[in-house]
Design a protein that fits this description.
The structure holds 2 protein chains of 2 kinds.
Chain A (H helix, E strand, L loop, with lengths): L8 H4 L1 E11 L4 H11 L6 E6 L5 E11 H13 L3 E8 L3 E12 L8 H8 L3 E5 L3 E8 L1 H11 L6 E4 L3 E4 L5 H10 L15
Antiparallel strand pairs in A: 1-3, 1-4, 2-3, 5-7, 5-8, 5-9, 6-7
Chain B lengths: L3 H6 L7 E3 H11 L4 E4 L6 H8 L6 E4 L3 H15 L3 E5 L3 H15 L4 E7 L15 H5 L5 E5 L5 H13 L5 E7 H5 L1 E3 L19 H13 L3 E5 L1 H6 L2 H11 L3 E3 L14 E4 L6 H5 L6 E5 L5 H4 L10 E6 L13 E4 L2 H8 L9 H23 L8 H12 L4 E4 L3 H9 L8 E3 L9 H11 L5 E6 H4 L5 H7 L5 E6 L4 H10 L14 H7 L4 E4 L2 H13 L4 E6 L23
Classes of the chains: A alpha+beta, B alpha/beta.
The complex binds thiamine diphosphate.
């Protein structure tokens, strides 16, 4: 109705959404999902694919910044794919999530005293490996946290930086297994018998 | 080769070892397939070899271009309600199918396309005639799958038919590597009846049904729009019952045409850019809009922001992704159209809306005086498209299957054709694919030999798939072909006239002699230019046994009106 097209700020405001998608483990699924975004010129900010707790079922976690209206449409398109079992949208606060970041730094900067080590510790990062030439730090957290450490380390000469896609677990109490059970038992796979006038 | 009957009678404990190729054919037969449209080539040769032994059971039509195979399968499906099947080889064969598959996808037409693929050990090596058919077809299929192991063949085909034909139908592609075709398997077939991740028939939510009924019962100006979903669901009777019970005027989208007979007292006409006047402007005056099995295409809505802003919208739709996609609904019933309407009907109070209906009739009169009369009974020497359709209606009595291509002739035919029976209008709606009509008409006639099939095609569009005259001739497929020749890419020329200051950039056509072409294929062909020949030439076309072609030279610079300018509100429909 008309008011939808007026400035419905709730629907039209851009924010971050986390999509959690359960699929059958079939070849080509990643492509099948990403083309839905490509076609609409929507950016995926982060994506992670992993096995779920159910054998043969994969979980995709996608982070995107868009409007509620748009995310709802995208999720419907994703659900439409034959091998997608379910797709759920979460807003900030509806999931527990983490990203992991790795920072590669020259070993020499650690030699000049414990200033930098302190910095690392105060940011909840840990030293993953120490090699002659470089040291790899690891930090798990939300993007703003790993980003903050990145910016702090920047002046010391970062050799390489990488951040993983988001992994996220919803706050809902429902078991995935239960959800699949409901899918298995649903009766929406056949058209209910019509009394007469179907096609010949 | 063992007879088919033996296979089908094989008891489950008996082992039957066949090649993958033969399994393809046997699986198709289990799905009740009687016709395949296709074209052979290296990577699908084993399947063609197996086909050779089943000539009696399976009618294979050798088209002249794989695009023709896909459109023919679409025409077959749209005319019969069955699933269309086509074969093509790898690489160019498969890529030639893509236009037809994309067309079937956007117009919800069930197809099963089987393509050959290079042997599995060569996949990804840029081997001869290798293309990534799965990747290419992914965005335009409902499902696709590559078979690299022979044992997967019956499973994949069973799944393909289930997916293509259920829920919102669509095209499915199965790509089979050559080694999988050659391999052997123990053949067993089990129809697919369920896929846990696929829920094609959501049940209508009883609360939504009651809410919808309440809206309809309280409406003073209810208005129903029917789309392809009504035909696909077989919900024509339910639509008519609802219209009659609640006194609701009904209009149709391009693909919904023929669901409700044109002469039904509550049928008010055709929607969209070149639709009827009343059906368009009344969209913005109704109080409850009931959309059944349609998806608010932009050719129907014009500017969606100015589409029915005053109305409460009820959307009955099987595909949840269509709900609230373009037009926000007040109540959505996510279910098969027939199922939803059957649930709704008992809650509807009988009523009439005579004054409201009269408003549509008043609009008809305006349109008649400004447009229709001049179109149907034009003055002057030159033949006009609309009068051709008027005379054709008189000859067919509204009983023909009309297959149209894309352009002005399509819009004129859609505006003026009389339909008595359902599933009588076959056209490329969503994709607007020129070249659709000739092969689609051919497929429709093969599917419905009992019905008269007339293809109405522009001089531009026919040349996109004209080689299918070869197929029509070889199999003596009795389609009646009308070429409405205006020597222009007419619809584009109309836009150039109206919106590009008459700069006719590359829309004029120097055409071949269509009659000579027809005759070269052995098809009785005639050309007319004068009005006084029109009736007898059309009568002659229809009366000719077997295929026949009639080229009608029409007014060169005719425009189709009414018209909702692209992106404008339906209220701003122009009559001239
Ligand atoms: C494959 C394809 N290419 C281009 C178009 C764009 N197009 C739409 S209508 C049209 C003109 C069609 O001309 P013709 O077949 O002569 O029919 P007319 O409009 O004159 O009736 C064109 C070029 C299209 N719809 N399909």
């Amino acid at each position: 109705m008309s008011d939808i097209y007026q400035d419905n700020t709730e629907q039209q405001a851009e924010k971050e959404f986390t999509l959690s998608i359960l699929t059958e483990n079939k070849p080509g699924m990643l492509n099948n999902i990403t083309i839905i975004f490509t076609r609409r010129k929507l950016n995926i900010n982060a994506i992670n694919v992993s096995a779920s707790e159910i054998p043969g079922v994969h979980r995709y976690t996608i982070v995107m910044i868009t409007t509620r209206d748009q995310v709802d449409k995208v999720v419907k398109q994703i659900r439409k794919h034959i091998d997608v079992l379910g797709a759920f949208v979460y807003e900030e606060g509806e999931t527990h999530y983490q990203e992991i970041a790795l920072y590669k730094l020259p070993t020499r900067i650690f030699l000049g005293g414990n200033h930098i080590e302190q910095l690392v510790r105060s940011h909840g990062a840990r030293i993953l490996v120490i090699e002659e030439e470089y040291i790899v730090l690891e930090k798990t957290g939300h993007k703003n946290e790993t980003q903050e450490l990145l910016e702090i380390l920047q002046p010391y000469g970062i050799l390489e930086f990488v951040r993983s896609g988001r992994v996220s677990i919803s706050k809902s109490k429902r078991k995935t297994e239960k959800f699949l059970e409901e899918l298995e038992n649903s009766t929406t796979h056949i058209l209910y018998k019509k009394n007469n006038n179907g096609k010949d | 080769m063992e007879p088919l009957s033996k296979t089908l009678e094989t008891k489950p404990e008996e082992k039957r070892i066949v090649t993958g190729s033969e399994a393809v054919i046997l699986s198709l037969l289990e799905e009740g397939v009687d016709t395949v449209f296709g074209y052979p080539g290296g990577a699908i040769m084993p399947i063609y070899d197996a086909l050779f032994g089943y000539e009696k059971e399976l009618n294979h039509i050798l088209v002249r271009h794989e695009q023709g195979a896909a459109h023919a399968a679409q025409g077959y499906s749209r005319a019969t309600g069955k699933i269309g099947v086509c074969f093509a080889t790898s690489g160019p064969g498969a890529t030639n199918l893509i236009t037809g598959i994309a067309d079937a996808q956007i117009d919800s037409t069930p197809l099963v396309c089987i393509t050959g693929q290079v042997p599995s050990h060569l996949l990804g090596t840029d081997s001869f005639q290798e293309s990534d058919v799965l990747g290419i077809s992914m965005p335009v299929t409902k499902w696709n799958f590559q078979v690299t192991r022979t044992e997967e063949i019956p499973w994949a085909i069973a799944r393909a038919f289930y997916i293509a034909g259920t829920g919102r139908p669509g095209p499915v592609l199965i790509d089979i590597t050559k080694d999988a075709q050659f391999g052997k398997l123990e053949y067993k077939y089990k129809k697919c009846e369920k896929i846990r991740s696929y829920h094609p028939y959501p049940h209508p939510d009883e609360r939504k049904v009651l809410e919808a009924a309440e809206l309809i019962n309280a409406a003073r100006k209810p208005y129903m729009l029917v789309g392809h979903g009504v035909l696909l669901s077989g919900a024509e009777n339910e639509v008519i019952q609802l219209a009659e019970k609640a006194g609701i005027p009904v209009a149709s989208t391009l693909l919904g045409l023929s669901a409700v007979p044109t002469d039904h007292p509550l049928y008010v006409g055709y929607l969209g850019m070149h639709g009827n006047y009343g059906p368009n402007i009344k969209t913005n005056e109704c109080d409850v809009l009931i959309a059944v099995g349609m998806r608010f295409d932009d050719r129907v809505t014009g500017d969606a922001k100015k589409y029915a802003p005053q109305a409460k919208v009820i959307h009955i739709e099987i595909d949840p992704a269509e709900i609230d996609k373009i037009i926000k609904t007040t109540v959505a019933i996510n279910a098969d159209a027939g199922h939803a309407l059957q649930s709704l009907l008992p809650h509807i109070i009988e009523t009439k809306h005579e004054e409201w209906l009269q408003e549509f009739r008043d609009c008809d009169e305006i349109e008649y005086n400004k447009v229709i009369q001049k179109d149907m009974y034009p003055e002057g020497e030159k033949i006009k498209m609309a009068e051709t359709i008027r005379i054709l209606n008189e000859i067919t009595g509204g009983d023909a299957i009309i297959v149209t291509d894309v352009g002005q002739h399509q819009m004129v035919a859609s505006r003026y054709t009389q339909f008595k029976q359902t599933n009588s209008n076959i056209t490329s709606g969503g994709l607007g694919t020129m070249g659709f009509a000739l092969p689609a008409a051919m497929g429709a006639k093969i599917g419905r030999p009992d019905r008269l099939v007339v293809g109405i095609i522009g001089d531009g569009g026919i040349q996109m798939t004209i080689q299918e005259l070869g197929t029509i001739s070889q199999y003596n497929i009795p389609v009646k072909i009308i070429i409405l020749n205006n020597n222009f890419l007419g619809m584009v020329r109309q836009w150039q006239q109206l919106f590009f200051e008459k700069r006719y950039s590359f829309t004029h056509m120097h055409n071949p002699d269509f009659v000579m072409i027809g005759k070269a294929y052995g098809i009785p062909s005639e050309k007319i230019e004068n009005k006084d020949q029109l009736k007898s030439a059309l009568e002659n076309l229809i009366a000719t046994e077997g295929p026949a072609l009639l080229e009608i030279v029409v007014e060169k610079e005719e425009n189709v009106f009414p018209m909702v300018p692209s992106g404008d509100s339906v209220s701003n429909i122009r009559l001239e």
